[in-house]
Amino acid sequence: MTSSVVTLSGGLDSTVCMAVARTASAAGGRLVALTFDYGQRHRVELEHAAAVAGHFGAEHLVVGLDASQWGGSALTDTAIDVPDACDAASSPTHIPVTYVPARNLIFLSVAMAVAEARDADDVYLGVNALDYSGYPDCRPEFIEAFAAAAALALKRGVEGRPVAIRTPLVQLAKADVVRLGLEVGAPLGLTWSCYRGGQQPCGTCDSCVLRARGFAQAGVDDPALS
Q1: 50, 129, 56: which is closest to 89 by C-alpha?
Q2: Domain extents for the chain?
Q3: Which architecture, in CATH terms, is 3-225?
Q4: Burial class (CB in 10 A: 0-12, 13-18, 19+), 80
Q5: Which residues pair with 62 in a beta bridge?
């Protein structure tokens, strides 16, 4: 029975990505949800990731990695304020302070290790290169380069069975992510997107604004706010 590893933050994109992986493995494949507790200020997302993993009946692994030890991001260093949303499209080279240094590079490395240990054929990652915050590790060229390196680094790759990296959302606008989520039955009401954490989304950080815009453009209400 084939397995797929899905990096699951508990956010909108990763949850839709997990629903896509479930649809692709409907013939009986096993899902492994991989969540990172990396010292993020919005640790409430871990509860949402657990709820999403439970919804899909997936094995749920939570890996501890305290990125606050080296800092450099508003998501892991409380001395750096999370800014309100800015128009990333007006400055395509600007990388905001919410970028976590090497986050997807590290996450994908661990995901590949889990995939090899579980003999999984695929790793799913919910990166998006259109409606995103300008993070360099969300771009298709990074994913392609990482996949090539992993094929050289893993036993499976050397044996001619490289682990594939699936990024089904990478070329979708946020509204299309919402539409896809509805199509594949993703539990959107269980998700969390706010960078600031707390009990309720702030509504003004970049992640909140991108999410709200996506639901508005898709013409549906956000079930997490009802």
Answers
A1: 129
A2: 3-225
A3: 3-Layer(aba) Sandwich (3.40)
A4: middle
A5: 35
Q: Which candidate, 187, 181, 218, places its Cα nearest to that of 10?
A: 187
Q: What does the alpha-carbon distance between residue 212 and residue 118 come to, in Å, rounded to a whole number? A: 37
What's the rounded Cα separation, in Å, for the pair 196 and 193? 9
Instruction: Report the candidate in 149, 157, 114 with the shortest Cα–Cα distance to residue 3.
Output: 114
Q: What digits encode the pLDDT tens for the residues 111-136?
A: 999 999 999 999 999 998 877 678 89
Question: Rounded to 5, what percent of the chain is helix, strand, coil?
Answer: 45, 10, 45
- Rounded Cα distance between 125 and 105, Å, is 11
- The tens digit of pLDDT for each residue in 151-210 reads 999 999 999 999 999 999 999 999 999 999 999 999 999 999 999 998 899 999 999 999
Joined together, the tokens standing for residue 185 give 């039955």
The residue among 61, 170, 169, 154 whose CA lies nearest residue 112 is 154
Where residue 132 falls (left for φ over 0; alpha for ψ -120 to 50; beta otherwise) is: beta
Kindly list the distances between the CA atom of residue 14 and the CA atoms of 1, 7, 10, 49, 115, in Å, as whole numbers in the listed order.
Answer: 23, 7, 7, 9, 17
Token pair recorded at residue 146: 């990482």
